[in-house]
Amino acid sequence: MNRNYIAGQWLEGVTTVANINPSDTTDIVGYYAQADAAQADEAIAAAHAAAPLWASSTPQQRADALDRIGSEILARREELGRLLSREEGKTLPEGIGEVARAGNIFKFFAGEALRQRGDKLASVRPGIEIEVTREPVGTVGIIAPWNFPIAIPAWKIAPALAFGNTVVFKPAELVPGCAWALAEIISRAGLPAGTFNLVMGRGAEVGQALLDDWRIDAISFTGSVATGTRVAQAAATRLAKVQLEMGGKNPMVVLNDADLDVAVECAVQSAFFSTGQRCTASSRLIVEEGIYKRFVQRMRERTAGLKIDHALATGTDIGPVVSGAQIEQDLSYIAIGQQEGARLVHGGEAVTRATPGHYLTPAIFADCSNEMRICREEIFGPVAAIIPARDYEHALELANDTEFGLATGICSTSLKHVQHFKRHAQAGMVMVNVPTAGVDYHVPFGGRKASSLGSREQGSYAAEFYTTVKTAYVAG
């Protein structure tokens, strides 16, 4: 049984939960401890008590610890990637790639621990100097999702520790295996007891404890809009710092002058890889009329050639949906799309494979209207809606006509349209002739509107959330 990690100790939970492989529901990945509110309180108390010591640690101490964590993750990328794919359902190459990304994130923030900067300025008053420095925000509660079970925790935990904060980490209930493996590596990195704590358990108990406790100075959350709204409300009630990454209904615009091969590949990868379970997935494909029919046909042909199978099987392009509940949600939206009058040109069926799992063929809807629910609401599965556009201006209007604003993309060879789109697309990230799903770890990640709240994640911009600025005036 894999336990929770609290105050430098591995502790049994109040219950355990079976971690089930979505590629083979007869395969139990392991049994993992579940904390309750009382154990969450223990973890919060430990992190709060450890905060002064870790805040006063040297940049070299923090850098060394994070570098050790990153090095072990990278050395074990194939083993941990197999665990990730078995637990979450990503294909094995995707799983290994995500683990490598997590290792690189820790190594990047090992460097950031040494690159903390301040400013020294002259005052407008004679005889006074000004120093502007950054200090840790304190104790950080981290609530992570299931779709990137090691990369997203890494890009939250690594900067928190790099900038001298202590951490209480609550992973998603569907993916305790990656969380435990990451915590086990962190537990051997030389951090003082209580600096990092893992509490696996239900959001209603463990997550709520993080939201309500005054000792949690900041909360970083990735998940649904509905839950993110509740997180923001709870944080506002006690004036805690909050960072939210939530939903997306990301568009990809394809113009008449696009390279069709590039456009189709970008669309397929954006919409369907990782089983469409990415907040940056392009579920709305907005295609100009001159290329529309050819794009739909090529999209259908390319998607029909994808192999949907066990995540660990050689040659699998798309693994299973993460859970029974998620595939039911996907199927319900596919039914809604048909009821709304969208034309289902490919897929959208639950299928069987050699092992019992949550397998779904990617669904392509054509002739969609941007007012349809399948074009407004986040499905979080392998479902793409193709929407015709009269011209570039109409395509841009459709792309921006959404409550979300995380990622957006355009496929075009027109410098004029690309430059205009980069400036006028209402999203935090813009991709040109590349898939919307797939971002680097050393640059800021985040969006606008209902997709994000608070400062950006990743890269040097992470300092905005995990530190607080102090201005000191010194008389000479």
Quick take:
The chain is an alpha/beta fold. The chain is built from 15 helices and 24 strands. The relative contact order is 0.14.
Account of the 3D structure:
The protein has 476 residues and is α/β, with parallel strands linked by helices. It folds into two domains: 4-246 and 451-475, 3-Layer(aba) Sandwich (Aldehyde Dehydrogenase, Chain A, domain 1), CATH 3.40.605.10; 250-432, Aldehyde Dehydrogenase, Chain A, domain 2 (3-Layer(aba) Sandwich), CATH 3.40.309. The protein has 15 helices and 24 strands. It has helices spanning 37-55, 59-75, 77-88, 92-114, 151-162, 176-187, 203-212, 225-237, 260-272, 289-304, 324-339, 373-376, 392-400, 415-424, 463-466, and strands at 4-6, 9-11, 15-21, 24-34, 119-122, 128-136, 139-143, 166-170, 196-198, 218-222, 241-245, 250-254, 282-288, 343-346, 350-351, 359-360, 363-366, 383-389, 404-405, 407-411, 429-432, 448-449, 452-453, 467-475. Helix 1 crosses helix 7. The radius of gyration is 23 Å and the shape is globular.
What tags apply to this protein structure?
476 residues; alpha/beta; Aldehyde Dehydrogenase, Chain A, domain 1; Aldehyde Dehydrogenase, Chain A, domain 2; 2 domains; seven-stranded mixed β-sheet; six-stranded mixed β-sheet; 15 helices
Number of domains: 2
Report how far apart the termini are. 61 Å
Number of helices: 15
Low-confidence stretches: none
CATH superfamily of the largest domain: Aldehyde Dehydrogenase, Chain A, domain 1
Strand coverage percent: 15-25%
Helix content: 25-40%
